Amino acid sequence: MQNHTTRPRPVYHLGNAEHAEDLIRAVGEAFDVRWLSQHGTHRIGSVWARRDPLASSELVCFGSALVRVRDLAPGWLKKTVRRIKKSPADAHGLISEILTFGQLSVPDGSLELAVDSQPGFDAIAHHGNGWKHFISVKNHDISDKEKQFQQAGRRIRKAWQNRIGLEKRSGGVVVISQVPFEAHHEAAVVELLKSECAPDGRRLLFDEAIYVSWGGPYNHIQPLSTARLSDHIVVVAAQPTSEQDRFKTGLRKAIQQIEKHTPNEPNTCRIVHMRVHESADLGLLEALANELAAQPAYAVDGVFLLQPSLLHDAVSSQVLHTVRMGGAGRKFIQFAQSRAGSHTTPYTYQFGVGALSDKPSQIQLSGPLGSSVTLHPHSYVFQQGDYYVDATPGKGGVLEANISTPAPGIAIHAVARIQGGEFVIQPLSPESDRLYLL
Q1: Which of 36, 265, 367, 420 is most buried, with most CB under 10 Å away?
Q2: Residue 215, C-beta contacts closer than 8 angstroms, at least 6 positions apart
Q3: Mean pLDDT score of the chain
Q4: In the structure, what pLDDT confidence band is assigned to residue 219 with cuts at 50, 70 and 90?
Q5: What's phi and psi for 15, nearest 5 deg?
């Protein structure tokens, strides 16, 4: 990963540039810029090292939460930052607590953070009508299975780049697997791309469970440069059943823990606040929470599901914060009834950057002629590509070119020829459009 520490951070897309820079500066002050610069392999350090718009958006979101938690509980924040710096590789749960407490507000009351190592819950929300909510914060990050899938995608792309490098032509590959993508599937796809002589074609593998298509590039907007090879790869595969099972297991465990360690008293509620990876099916988790709420032994009063993701189209991208609630128990309904006539909501969210939605984003694959297909929510997707176009003289002899990131993982670069030399102008884009902090 390149560390362009001398390049200014892009904040043009964040509205008030001065405010955005203040929030990014708050991250540096909390964790120490020197420490962040020396620890570029963990989440905060890796995002801090980047100089692309998505990294700026994540840092502003995180900085906004830091500032609010600093005002709410400065002692708690200092201890938490020390714990993160002591063990940064295992700190995403602590990062999620900072984000949650910095984004969640109680309009008619206050939020009290629990002491260190408090079992069962992480905060108490004191509401204006005298009710207390014990809140347990849980985080479920990317799974090892999805990490392995992403690594397989990179290896397939490398094999394809080697082939088109030998053939000196640009091209793309699409792999669609109706079954979970395992090591032997990857090996077969790589072998096919190495051994197949035809410049383009299609093949079905493993009893038609895996479709492979290869050939020319998929960019039909503008002519490609002959000075650089362009490549594009898409791999889509069904998730293993363990992917959604782990989210459901996590929800059940969180309910058991908060039930075990919090009192079931009048005018109190037990709330699970669960931040999940973008691969989670929110509808499935909400249905599970509602199913559990219908059982007589259900002792939790509500489940808040929060799923950050990146909403990307051909024109722009933004962070999307999807919030859903399920599993409203009898006492939460009593709490809501006690607030009848109130002019405020029980909770509000302030994310710093991005849009709030109650509907998760969908993954769509676009075809070469503008058609698109929406993927099943239980899908893994890997996409990377680099397209190179020639910069052309415009008015006054100024070179012009469209450099952009039209889709997740895809970048369009410009090749400029000046005084006999060639220069590549790159867009400010990350290698992956995945959220690392949020």
Answers
A1: 36
A2: 171, 172, 199, 200, 201
A3: 87
A4: low
A5: 80, -105
Q: Quick one: pLDDT at residue 369?
A: 46
What average pLDDT does the segment 390-419 reach?
80
**Whole-angstrom Cα distance, residue 436 to residue 348?**
24
Q: Which of 8-17, 230-239, 328-337, 419-428 has the highest mean pLDDT?
A: 230-239
CA distances from 175 to 156, 182, 392, 435 (A): 10, 13, 34, 24
Enumerate the β-bridge partners of residue 305: 274, 324
Residue 359's identity, in one-letter code, is K
Residues linked to residue 374 through DSSP beta bridges, in sequence order:
364
| Joined tokens for residue 49 | 């090292």
Closest CA to 104 of 68, 80, 140: 68
Radius of gyration over every alpha carbon of the chain, rounded to an integer in angstroms: 24
- Rounded Cα–Cα distance for residues 397 and 13 (Å): 29
CA 299 from centre of chain:
31
Q: What are phi and psi of 53, to 5 degrees?
A: -60, -35
Instruction: Map the chain to HEC letters.
Output: CCCCCCCCCCCHHHCCHHHHHHHHHHHHHHHCHHHHHHCCCCHHHHHHHCCCHHHHHHHHHHHHHHHHHHHHCHHHHHHHHHHHHHCHHHCHHHHHHHHHHHHEECCCCEEEECCCCCCCCCEEEECCCCCEEEEEEEEECCCHHHHHHHHHHHHHHHHHHHHHHHHCCCEEEEEEECCCCCHHHHHHHHHHHHHCCCCCEEEEECCCCEEEEEECCCCCCCCCCCCCCCEEEEEEEECCHHHHHHHHHHHHHHHHHHHHHCCCCCCEEEEEEEEECCCCCHHHHHHHHHHHHCCCCCCCCEEEEEEEEEEECCCCEEEEEEEEEECCCHHHHHHHHHCCCCCCCCCEECCCCCEEECCCCCCEEECCCCCEEECCCCEEEEEEEEEEEECEECHHHCEECCCEEEECCEEEEEEEEECCEEEEECCCCCCCCCCCCC
Query: Whose structure tokens read 């005298």?
Result: 130
Separation CA 276–CA 253 (nearest Å): 14
The pair of three-digit structure tokens given for residue 221, joined into one six-digit string:
């907007």
Weakest mean pLDDT among 30-44, 90-104, 224-238, 280-294: 30-44
pLDDT score of 238: 96
Please report the pLDDT score of residue 157 as a whole number. 96
The identity of residue 266, as a single letter, is P
Token pair, residue 192, equals 């096919």
pTM listed for this prediction = 0.88
Q: Rounded to an integer, what distance in angstroms lies between the CA atom of residue 138 and that of residue 349? A: 17
